[in-house]
Design goal:
This protein has 761 residues and is of the alpha+beta class. It has 5 domains: 225 residues, GHMP Kinase, N-terminal domain (Ribosomal Protein S5, domain 2, 2-Layer Sandwich), CATH 3.30.230; 72 residues, Polyribonucleotide nucleotidyltransferase, RNA-binding domain (Arc Repressor Mutant, subunit A, Orthogonal Bundle); 214 residues, GHMP Kinase, N-terminal domain (Ribosomal Protein S5, domain 2); 135 residues, OB fold (Dihydrolipoamide Acetyltransferase, E2P) (Beta Barrel), CATH 2.40.50.140; 48 residues, no CATH class. The protein has 16 helices and 29 strands. Strands 8-7-9-10-21-20-18-19 form an 8-stranded antiparallel beta sheet, with helices on both faces. It is an enzyme of class 2 (transferase). InterPro entries: ExoRNase_PH_dom1 (IPR001247), ExoRNase_PH_dom2 (IPR015847), ExoRNase_PH_dom2_sf (IPR036345), KH_dom (IPR004087), KH_dom_type_1 (IPR004088), KH_dom_type_1_sf (IPR036612), NA-bd_OB-fold (IPR012340), PNPase (IPR012162).
């Protein structure tokens, strides 16, 4: 019934299997990819015609994780998968970025690529599997896709070994220093995304080349599948011959465009270019709509040729800089008075206001994904309002681009954060782009780093970032440092590198041509290293290292470790004790399963009060030590005093003063603060206290002037008829069953009631 085609290879110690022909057969191309026990289905559909007047390529990639893949039910009210999570958005971009440049210019048919995770084994990351499935589905679909591409994840161990497809825990765990994702064709690298623990340029380049070599194995498997199952290629006319129109436009507006690109001010340059475009539009106003559309595209090609030619032939950039020159930088910290940390970072016409906010554990972000619930204590959010580029547009909705740029900056800064145990704050960086003309994500890295240092976050080393560009014509190429927005649009590469003086923390690369060589990447990394060092120097003029303490507006957090066996004592029945601590002291108290307690408040006295309370609960009382306590209950034979948070002891009436005391209420009252000395702790943990041997004013121990008590054996019987014990128990009119039952004595009143030794006079 099914014409199923299957290809399998051994790859990275696991079997990678690609199948088609059984599932989603009405799609133009559908591939079920299995790696380990992680399974991803990718289906590709393409519109057979182009909408009238359309002059762009509408490729849409959707990646979705099904909770059932991990045997889980989604949280929330609706109990079904909802809007895309951050991870799903980032993986969608991860698939989109390398495949988009591999469609021919002039192909405008709408294409949907939908990848769904159907099974997840908890070890094999599904993003790589989804990229491979998408490449295979596009390759067999018949659409004009100039692939296939392969993909691989690479780790780098502390021993200097590259690891293929590690789990995320292994990639950046205690023994790992790199999480790198690469997509590549047979001949060249197309896309790089990474987070690293300060790798050198040589180590990073080696990882990219290792990934490229492993990707070729996947490409071979996809080609084998396509030879069995590929549909006939589409016959599509994408030949918009614009050469004649372009030459006509060169004579009309060529000089105007060249003059416009010599204006260093972005606003003036934009106005001049718009005027040239309007002039070109008027020249073709009487032509057919199709000719007008071709003319509009020809203007863009003409602009590209003029800019690219000037850079390759004369080394002349749009704003007059040298190829490796960074725009002027101005950085300042402490911009905003009430934030915990703030910075204004300006590089040329790109500017970001970055703020850092420090919070407690309850501010952590809860993430519900295939791996289960997890908590994130470092967040970075990037906003790109339309006014930053002088335009009007939709405001408030977080775009995929904003999510991606924020995650890139997050990856750049995450490796230099202090250990959470040493700095137990939840950290949120907010980057608001106020001006943009090239690489606002790298401005976010620089500004975010400065704002953290201003907030007193003890990062290991400052981090800076730079965006590199590329102009490639045949064998000739030029690498540009700190690219402008126009250089990004008209160039062939967006290559972003962030890192400290010690090494690279993040690398992202997108290519608009059919890939770049190792030589180009090596040149770009070396040039980026020089640019990063220069930017770090400019940042240090504003603030060289983290401030010695957190902002006065930030909460203080103090951490203490208690024995696990004491956790229940601190929490109390139904949380009674910990709620009382919070209510009485005003501090927030969080405790985990390992006995780590975090006490937070903006008031140091509140923290100290909560800490002492908890110490009193978990501390063991010492015989002979003096404590301050509070009277919590008065009985006829003495008073119970809470003296160590969760511990009570009895001050017998005879231990209240050196002289005889008739009633405990003559000396103490409930709620009164008293100073007591521990006299005895019996084998059941009962504590006997004394007030009379402690100066109630100073807390100093007094000399015991009372004569020693006579031995207990000479005092006579304590039941039925005689002595004080008899008066209080067996006397006064005969037996008292209720007293006997309560005190453990003879129910007939004739024997001695059982009273703990320390209660006996």
């Amino acid at each position: 019934m099914f014409d199923k085609k299957t290809v399998s290879i051994e790859w990275g110690g696991k079997t990678l299997t690609l199948e088609t022909g059984q599932i989603a057969r009405q799609a133009d191309g559908a591939v079920l990819a299995t790696y380990g026990e992680t399974v991803v289905l990718c289906a590709v559909t393409a519109a057979k015609s182009v909408r009238e007047g359309q002059d762009f390529f509408p490729l849409t990639v959707h990646y979705q994780e099904k909770f059932s893949a991990a045997g889980r039910i989604p949280g929330g009210f609706f109990k079904r998968e909802g809007r895309a999570t951050e991870k799903e958005t980032l993986t969608s971009r991860l698939i989109d970025r390398p495949v988009r440049p591999l469609f021919p210019e002039g192909f405008y048919n709408e294409i949907n690529v939908i990848a769904q995770v159907l099974s997840y084994d908890g070890e094999t990351e599904p993003d790589i599997v989804a990229m491979i499935a998408a490449s295979a589905a596009l390759t067999i679909s018949g659409v004009p896709f100039m692939g296939p591409i392969g993909a691989a994840r690479v780790g780098f161990s502390n021993d200097g070994e590259y690891i293929l497809n590690p789990s995320l825990d292994d990639a950046l765990g205690e023994d790992g220093r790199l999480d790198l994702v690469v997509a590549a064709t047979q001949d060249a690298v197309m896309m790089v995304e990474s987070e690293a623990k300060e790798l050198t340029e040589e180590e990073m380049l080696g990882a990219v080349m290792f990934a490229h070599e492993e990707s070729r194995k996947v490409i071979g498997a996809i080609i084998d599948l396509a030879e069995q199952a590929a549909k006939d290629p589409w016959e599509i006319d994408t030949s918009d011959d614009t050469s004649a129109i372009k030459e006509k436009l060169r004579g009309i507006v060529g000089d105007d465009i060249a003059a416009a690109y010599k204006l260093t001010n972005k606003s003036q340059r934009s106005d001049a270019l718009n005027a040239a475009r309007e002039k070109a539009k008027e020249a073709f106003a009487d032509e057919e709509p199709q000719t007008q559309m071709v003319a509009n595209k020809a203007v863009k090609k003409l602009e590209s040729e003029i800019v690219r030619g000037a850079i390759l032939k004369d080394g002349q950039r749009i704003d007059g800089r040298k190829l490796n020159e960074v725009r002027p930088i101005e950085a300042m910290v402490g911009l905003l008075p009430r934030t915990h940390g703030s910075a204004l970072f300006t590089r040329g016409e790109t500017q970001a206001i970055c703020t850092t906010t420090l919070g407690t554990k309850d501010a952590e972000q809860m993430i519900d994904g295939l791996e289960g619930l997890s908590y994130n204590h470092f967040m970075l959010h990037y906003n790109f309002p339309p006014y930053s580029v002088g335009e009007v547009g939709r405001f408030g909705f977080t775009s995929r681009r904003e999510t991606g740029h924020g995650k890139l900056a997050w990856r750049a800064l995450h490796p230099v954060l202090p250990d959470h145990e040493d700095f137990p704050y939840t950290i949120r960086i907010l980057s608001d782009i106020t001006e943009s003309n090239g690489s606002s994500s790298m401005a976010t890295v620089c500004g975010g780093c400065l704002s953290m240092m201003d907030a007193g976050v003890p990062i290991e080393r400052p981090v800076s970032g730079i965006a590199m560009g590329l102009i490639l014509e045949g064998d000739d190429f030029a690498v540009l440092s700190d690219i402008l927005g126009d250089e990004d649009h008209l160039g062939d590469m967006d290559f972003k590198v962030a890192g400290s003086e010690k090494g690279i923390t993040s690398l992202q690369m997108d290519i608009k041509v059919a890939g770049i060589t190792q030589e180009i990447m090596k040149t770009a990394l070396a040039q980026a290293s020089e640019g990063r060092a220069h930017i770090l120097g400019e940042m240090q003029k504003a603030l060289g290292s983290a401030r010695g303490e957190v902002s006065k507006h930030a909460p203080r957090i103090e951490t203490m470790q208690i024995d696990k066996s004491k956790i229940r004592d601190v929490i109390g029945t139904g949380g009674k004790v910990i709620r009382e601590i919070v209510a009485e002291t005003g501090a927030k108290v969080d405790i985990d399963d390992e006995g780590v307690i975090k006490i937070s408040s903006s008031n140091a006295d509140e923290i100290e009060a909560a800490k002492k309370w908890i110490e009193g609960i978990v501390e063991e009382a010492e015989v002979g030590k003096i404590y301050t306590g509070k009277v919590v209950n008065i009985v006829d034979f003495g008073a119970f005093v809470n003296f160590m948070g969760g511990k009570d002891g009895l001050v017998h009436v005879s231990e209240m003063k050196n002289e005889r005391v008739e009633k405990p209420t003559d000396v103490v009252s409930e709620g009164q603060e008293v100073k007591v000395k521990v006299l005895e702790i019996d084998n059941r943990g009962k504590v006997r206290l004394s007030m009379r041997v402690v100066d109630q004013e100073t807390g100093e121990e007094l000399e015991d002037t009372r004569p020693p008590r006579e031995p207990r054996g000479d005092r006579g019987p304590r039941g039925g008829g005689g002595g004080r014990g008899g008066d209080r128990r067996g006397g006064r009119g005969g037996p008292r069953r209720d007293r006997g039952d309560r005190d453990g004595g003879n129910k007939d009143g004739g024997g001695e009631a059982h009273v703990p030794d320390f209660l006996k006079d």
